[in-house]
Amino acid sequence: xxxxxxSWSELGPCLSSKLAEYLTQKHGITPAAARxxxxxxxxxxxxxxxxxxxxxxxxxYLQQDYASPRYWHNLxxxxxxxxxxxxxxxxxxxxxxxxxxxxFDSACGSPIAQKKHLGARTVLQRxxxxxxxxxxxxxxxxxxxxxxxxxxxxxxxxxIQEPALARARLIAERALLDSIKEWLRRLGMASFxxxxxxxxxxxxxxxxxFTWDLSAPCYLAPLLSxxxxxxxxxxxxxxxxxxxxxxxxxxxxxxxxxxVKTLQSIKTxxxxxxxxxxxxxxxxxxxxxREVGVIPGTPESLFGKEIAEAFKELVGALTKAAxxxxxxxxFDDMFxxxxxxxxxxxxxxxxxxxxxxxxxxxxxxxxxxxxNKVCKGLNDEEAEVDVFLLQEGNSPRMIxxxxxxxxxxVSDDEIGKWLTxxxxxxxxxxxxxxxxxxxxxxxxxELWTSGVLSHNAQCRIDRTREANKAKFELIIMGPxxxxxxxxxxxxxxxxxxxxxxxxxxxxxxxxDWLGNL
Length: 517
Fold this sequence. Notes:
By secondary structure, the protein is of the alpha+beta class. The chain has helices at 2-7, 16-27, 31-39, 69-82, 85-96, 101-108, 120-129, 148-156, 161-187, 250-265, 283-291, 299-303, 305-322, 328-338, 346-364, 412-432, 455-467, 479-486, 490-499, 505-515; strands at 14-15, 45-47, 59-62, 99-100, 133-138, 142-147, 196-197, 206-207, 210-211, 214-218, 225-226, 233-234, 236-243, 272-278, 295-297, 370-376, 382-389, 397-402, 444-449, 473-477.
């Protein structure tokens, strides 16, 4: 009876309460008898472990249905129907597809720690134990959270699309957060040097019992609170979360709405100004944000139509570039438009430079370069290679990219870490996978930078090159060398010169000579 019910196309995997209701209606038995039959179901009937529903309700399914499309559909729907912490966490992960583990606490809508509330890490642990969410280390992203459904699809595919999509979205969101930070500064809405963003060094942005994508103290009069002696004001706060996933639906923003409602219910909580920013919203999502006093912003409402269009194009362009299709002219146009935003370019510049270097390598070398390849040394210590190219019969190429504004000096500490830590770990990785042999071509470790090296850094590189010339090649590609490599590709050269490379010395010399006539 139970197996027949669960295999019925209109029921399928479901909550035990729904199954009991079906048995009562279909077979005319009492609710108590239905519950007893469910508890005595045979071995083919499974109960989802580790994820408790209200009133001891369990999710029931047949072994043959596990991980099938209708299993995931019915399970996700059952979780969303509970409208609790698991539903909010699932909505947050489905909205983003891939969530860096460090960002999960903010995205899931659960507090770090609060009485009578499940903490964010407890929610994650239980959903992982129930095989609904998984954590996996992805290239260029590190440990990430995704649904088991998506993870299985990711494993069966070439494994490129999901990291590329996630990294593109995160780069665009970081650029958006940097721009919002400058916007708040210009309006005087936040303390100038106390704005925290996700991904910054140190603790994540936190206000109350929750973490956010952005937080800052605010001294605007409506948010101030005064001590009894009326002499010292206490600031309120500005918080903001962003999600560049269009359109944002109701269950995507419910984690944020829950954070807002929870803080508003705490009597001792200081006043908070809430902002949410997305490309666009469904009607239900927009209404839900407005009902709790949140400003539902968009890039267009904050920065205008031109910048909003550039943000929309950014995710697609970054994804295509990471998967091997880069249009330098389109990049140049998009980069130029976004550069009008104060603060937007800082974190994007390095990512853009990596994609441009990968495009050059792909154009000039056999094989397909891998972006943000994670290599493991002897003790499983990791080192990330920005552009990694391994082609049988050719020298392995490991490229470190340092994209920065023209004339900016590369940190001596970064050069030191590259020479003493990353190169050693990558060499150990290459030996472990037998990518290098005693009689084979030597690996090439390359540094591509649009910046300049200090005298100390250059001397250290020369010493390392000389000491290890029998083991590997050490190559530096500075602005002049990069310009020489791409001089035949006018569109690519123009993009690099507009945003990375200093003005050509020959042009400067000619300008000086003409100016002296």
